[in-house]
Amino acid sequence: MPVERSPAWYHVEVLERRCPVGAVRAVYCGTNSFLSMAIMAGLAYATHAPFIFPSLGPTAFLLFFSPRSANASPYNTLVGHLIGLCSGYFALVVTGLTSAPPDLEHVTGERVLAAAIALGLTCGLMPLLRAAHPPAGATTLIIALGLLRSPEDLAIMSAAVLVIVAQGLVINRFAGIPYPLWKPAPDA
Predict the structure, then answer these.
(1) Overall pTM surpassing 0.85 (yes/no)
(2) Sorted alphabetically, which InterPro entries does this protein's record hold (predicted)?
(3) Using N-to-C axis directions, what is the helix angle for 21-47 and 56-65, rounded to 10°?
(4) How far apart are CA 143 and CA 150, in angstroms?
């Protein structure tokens, strides 16, 4: 007869049986989001590269507040941000703004068009590819507004998304959460 192993004390569901659910989720989400941004900021500090950018904040929130939701799956997160990156850069190319510095105080017609094209493409392609990840809407605007726009910046942004997804996978699995390896679970 196999010996039944008790669940690890650090598993979220075990903690939720012992403590208020809201408190456990708040501490879990807050602590892991803090850790994510500390890692990204540390990478940015060490490399002087844009490993931290605004849309990673909501991505961290999704990964640790609702890890079983489709929006937080590795597929949706990676593909969603990739769509945002490509759409934002496409909008810069089409409007001729690939080398124009950002100027949010004197927005031009080209910049308005770039932002509209980028967000429209991102919001249209994510459902088409079944890769909804709302923070990708911010990623595409970061690029279309020229805040990060070089191919090197986009490569670093992609690497940052890979790092945060890997972190989410490791931490959520360690915490006993059945976080998907790629696609969202059918019941998510």
Answers:
(1) yes
(2) HPP, TM_HPP
(3) 150
(4) 9
